[in-house]
Design brief:
147 residues; mainly alpha; 7 helices; 84% helix; 0% strand
Length: 147
Amino acid sequence: MENLKHIFTVPESVRKTAEFINESKLLQAHKHLTDLEMARDDLMFELHKQPQKSPTDNNTLTKYFKDVEKLSEDLGKQLWIIMGRVLITVRREPTLIVTALRIIEREEKRDEIVMKRKEQTGFLPVGRPKRWKQKTFEILERTITYK
């Protein structure tokens, strides 16, 4: 029953998350995205635990949650823009930098949890690990080198 609640709210949650990303409400977008990813990952893990693996069920869930991965990419793009402009943004909107770094830190913690779970169960959710901390350092290095 708990899973059904998640399944029925996915389209509205996807729409709302995309809206938050477009409005640069990044913390709210990240909260909604995390909820969507966790719902997807929980459902996929339940399928993973089944003794009879059904490719049809897997494909159905993957298609149903396909927009979640795109939302993650879109949020990432927003973060990379912020981090790419860090030297300008830090003077004008330092809270934006803090927001971006908080999201990146949360994603890094989620990556750690997912990798520990993979060691125990063999299950790795779609799009994980994201490695956003590594990407952040790459962008910062490029930004500082070229400025």
